[in-house]
Amino acid sequence: MKKIILIVGPSGVGKDTLIRCAKKELSENDNYHFINRYITRKADENEENYFVEEDAFHLLEKNDFFISSWNAHKNFYGIAKNNILEGINIISISRDYIKDFEEYYDDVTTIQVTLPKEILLSRLRERKRETEEQIMLRLKRAYTNIRAKKLVTFDNKEKITKSSKEFISLLKKC
């Protein structure tokens, strides 16, 4: 059986940090698989992704390599079909592409990671990836409704030690 747990939420809420903590705790021996994305930008220190040049990405997309692919903030992202394994697959994706997984798999849970607006604003500024205008656009989009058949919300406002334990507990319940 292939179970899918999608991790969604705006940039800066700590999805990659939570996933990294969970990855240390939950192993493939326990049937947990942490699926890396293909991205047309090099991963930063908080990410584990496959970097691929844009031309190569589009070739993979054209050849039906991805279960889901999307464009966000001038980069392309994709999840390879052959990376989804028997067991529990934990995947960070764009909230706009939940349906790609829900149409293809029977057992899909979406975890929406959230933060209070003032904390998210502070984190986005600390990253120094974007201009203030870009940050404000991200904030505006961050609090739109998510559509998913099975949606669970996770508030990531606690310190990482407490928050990661709560997140891991939630993954085990899903």
Task: Give me some keywords for this one.
alpha/beta; 5-stranded parallel β-sheet; 6 helices; 4-stranded mixed β-sheet; Rossmann fold
Write up what this structure looks like.
This protein has 174 residues and is an alpha/beta fold. The chain has a single domain (2-37, 82-173), classed as P-loop containing nucleotide triphosphate hydrolases (Rossmann fold), CATH 3.40.50.300. It has helices at 15-25, 54-62, 98-104, 117-127, 132-142, 160-173, and strands at 2-8, 32-35, 38-39, 50-51, 66-72, 75-80, 87-92, 107-114, 151-155. The strands form 2 sheets. A 5-stranded parallel sheet has the order 2-7-1-8-9, sandwiched between helices. The chain has a 4-stranded mixed sheet with strand order 4-3-6-5. A hairpin with a 2-residue loop joins strand 5 and strand 6. The radius of gyration is 16 Å and the shape is globular. It starts with a strand and ends with a helix. The model has no long low-confidence stretch (mean pLDDT 90).
Layout of helices and strands, plus pairs?
Elements: E1 2-8, H1 15-25, E2 32-35, E3 38-39, E4 50-51, H2 54-62, E5 66-72, E6 75-80, E7 87-92, H3 98-104, E8 107-114, H4 117-127, H5 132-142, E9 151-155, H6 160-173
Parallel strand pairs: 1-7, 1-8, 2-7, 3-4, 8-9
Antiparallel strand pairs: 3-6, 5-6
Helix pairs in contact: 1-6, 4-5
Structural class based on helices, strands and sheet pairing:
alpha/beta
Beta-strand level of the residues, as a percent range? 25-35%
Main sheet: which strands, in order across?
2-7-1-8-9
CATH superfamily grouping: P-loop containing nucleotide triphosphate hydrolases
Helix content: 25-40%
CATH topology: the name is Rossmann fold
Count of helical stretches: 6
Order of helices and strands: EHEEEHEEEHEHHEH
Q: For this entry, what is the oligomeric state of its chains?
A: single chain
CATH architectural name: 3-Layer(aba) Sandwich
